[in-house]
């Protein structure tokens, strides 16, 4: 899922930028295919490059930040707002280190293929990599540096706050794979799905809705998905201010997997036996799929019922589509990535509220779509250390704070220390110069280990992703019952897992 992060300062997402959680799935490149393609594409050129390649020079200086002055690094990233903010703010890093950074931004599927070929080549055209957990980290973790080694190097500046300053669920989900004792990436961005609603309309109709529905409709800690359904239907049937009570990113696309997964987990359904561990740390062998379990089928039944009262255009929307509809005043509420808050506030200042998604019979769950930045294991020793300096700077508290206020983009901090700052706490209340921070309470509660929604971090996730959103789309089109869709998805998952990645 490539989720575009709207700029804290600019209203709508840029029309040419793909919307991250979460992300447009790439066609998976099996490892053998990668090796064959790299050999066919480069062959003798790669061998020649291996013989003449030189490491970055290391200077004899007392300033650990200036050791690799004169080095040039290449950073390959999805075209996200956080990277746009970094690209616009590189001068401080170059002044600090003397290192030049070239940033290449691509749509995620193109990035994945370039990274795969680069890792297979034995070279490091891209020293710094935007390591999507599902399309880069899970399948290619062996091609990435264990960052603990660099963090322990006494000749390099220390990691500000240590690894413990990163939000724990994010460090695991975006930074680790299969084992808790290695860190392959530092959390770089953290789009998370939350409940976004027209606070002005909820205030206007609160008493009437409470009387009609029998509960307080204000989104809160005790709100349930059944109540969400009832509120959505009430708005559609009774309020003239908006045409529809809710809208969803239910296009046959990665966005549908994200939207449906929130309901799946809330109802006690799962993709595999231990979705928490498979999502948080990841694994090569997740075991049999559990999408045909009663709880998963109940979640599908609920989701179909919910979409029956949603804006009918929901089946044509990804995250950008539902976000635009919400900003245009077409919806009373919707689940969407929290970093759409900046666009909401520009379009409807002071009228939007933010809360964690409702809870279901089993729990509350909000999909996390964050990514980390990593270093290619093909880097030479000094080149690797220079890349580490960039990671330190790009994920530092000061850089994350500047990103929040960037005029061209910027994400939401992944470090606990940033949220503890007085100016950041103040910006979580209106009027806010950093409107994405208005979601702070909602996302912090969602990032708790019991609430965070983590899709399976497995090397073959791309194919599984396609399987689930295809089957749920069939269900929404009326071509399959909820039970049929879930059983078909389970069979497809099991075939994919049995075949294995890189067959």
Q: Can you describe this structure?
A:
The protein is an alpha/beta fold and 503 residues long. The chain has 2 domains: 178 residues, 3-Layer(aba) Sandwich (D-Maltodextrin-Binding Protein, domain 2), CATH 3.40.190; 175 residues, 3-Layer(aba) Sandwich (D-Maltodextrin-Binding Protein, domain 2). Helix content is 44%, strand content 10%. The chain has a 5-stranded mixed sheet, with helices on both faces. The longest helix has 18 residues. The radius of gyration is 23 Å and the shape is globular. 55% of the residues are buried.
Primary descriptors:
single chain, 503 residues, alpha/beta, D-Maltodextrin-Binding Protein, domain 2, 2 domains, 5-stranded mixed beta sheet, 4-stranded mixed beta sheet, 44% helix, disordered N terminus
- The count of DSSP E runs of length 2 or more, i.e. the number of strands, is 11
Low-confidence stretches: 1-51
Would you give the CATH topology of the largest domain?
Answer: D-Maltodextrin-Binding Protein, domain 2
What would the average pLDDT be, to the nearest integer?
A: 90
CATH superfamily of the largest domain: Periplasmic binding protein-like II
Q: Report the total helices.
A: 22
Give the helix level as a range of percent. Answer: 40-55%
Produce a short descriptive summary.
It is built from 22 helices and 11 strands.
Explain the layout of strands and helices.
Elements lengths: L30 H12 L1 H9 L19 E7 L2 H7 L3 H7 L2 E7 L1 H14 L6 E4 L1 H8 L6 H5 L16 H8 L10 E4 L3 E6 H15 L11 H14 L5 E3 L7 H13 L8 H6 L13 H15 L10 H9 L3 E7 L3 H7 L4 E4 L10 E2 L3 E5 L5 H14 L2 H8 L11 H4 L2 H6 L12 H7 L5 E2 L7 H16 L5 H18 L4
Parallel strand pairs: 1-2, 1-3, 6-7, 9-11
Antiparallel strand pairs: 3-10, 4-10, 5-7, 5-8
């Amino acid at each position: 899922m490539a989720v575009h992060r709207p700029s804290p300062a600019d209203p709508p997402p840029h029309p040419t930028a793909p919307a991250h959680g979460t992300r447009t799935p790439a066609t998976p490149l099996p490892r053998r295919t990668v090796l064959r393609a790299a050999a066919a594409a480069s062959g003798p050129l790669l061998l020649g490059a291996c013989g003449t390649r030189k490491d970055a020079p290391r200077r004899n200086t007392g300033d650990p930040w200036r050791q690799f002055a004169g080095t040039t690094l290449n950073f390959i990233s999805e075209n996200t707002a956080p990277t746009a903010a970094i690209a616009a703010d590189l001068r401080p890093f170059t002044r600090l280190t003397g290192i030049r950074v070239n940033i290449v931004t691509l749509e995620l599927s193109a990035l994945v293929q370039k990274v795969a070929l680069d890792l297979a080549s034995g070279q490091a055209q891209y020293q710094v990599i935007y390591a999507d957990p599902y399309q880069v980290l899970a399948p290619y973790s062996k091609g990435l540096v264990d960052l603990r080694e660099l963090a322990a190097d006494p000749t390099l500046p220390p990691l500000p706050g240590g690894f413990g300053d990163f939000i724990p669920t994010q460090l695991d989900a975006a930074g680790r794979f299969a084992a808790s004792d290695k860190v392959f990436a530092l959390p770089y961005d953290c789009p998370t799905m939350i409940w976004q609603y027209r606070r002005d309309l909820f205030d206007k109709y609160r008493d009437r809705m409470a009387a009609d529905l029998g509960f307080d409709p204000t989104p809160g800690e005790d709100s349930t998905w059944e109540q969400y359904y009832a509120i959505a239907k009430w708005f559609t049937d009774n309020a003239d201010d908006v045409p529809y009570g809710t809208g969803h990113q239910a296009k046959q696309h990665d966005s549908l997997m994200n939207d449906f997964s929130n309901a799946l987990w809330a109802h006690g359904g799962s993709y595999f036996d231990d979705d928490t561990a498979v999502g948080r740390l990841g694994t090569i062998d997740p075991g049999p799929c559990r999408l045909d379990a009663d709880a998963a089928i109940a979640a599908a039944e609920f989701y179909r019922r919910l979409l029956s009262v949603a804006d009918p255009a929901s089946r044509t929307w990804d995250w950008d589509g539902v976000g635009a509809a919400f900003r245009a005043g077409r919806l009373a509420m919707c689940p969407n990535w929290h970093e759409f808050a900046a666009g909401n506030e520009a379009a409807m200042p002071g009228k939007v509220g933010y809360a964690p998604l409702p809870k279901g019979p089993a729990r509350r769950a909000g999909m996390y779509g964050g990514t980390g930045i990593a270093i290619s294991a093909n880097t030479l020793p000094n080149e690797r250390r220079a890349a580490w300096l960039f990671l330190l700077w790009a994920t530092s508290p000061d850089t994350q704070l500047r990103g929040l206020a960037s005029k061209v983009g910027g994400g939401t901090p992944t470090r606990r220390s940033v949220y503890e700052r007085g100016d950041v706490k103040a910006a979580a209340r209106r009027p806010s110069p950093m409107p994405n921070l208005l979601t702070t309470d909602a996302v912090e509660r969602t990032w708790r280990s019991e609430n965070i929604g983590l899709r399976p971090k497995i090397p073959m996730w791309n194919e599984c992703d396609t399987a689930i959103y295809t089957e749920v789309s069939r269900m929404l089109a009326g071509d399959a019952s909820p039970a049929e869709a879930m059983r078909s998805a389970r069979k497809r998952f099991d075939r994919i897992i049995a075949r294995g990645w890189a067959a």
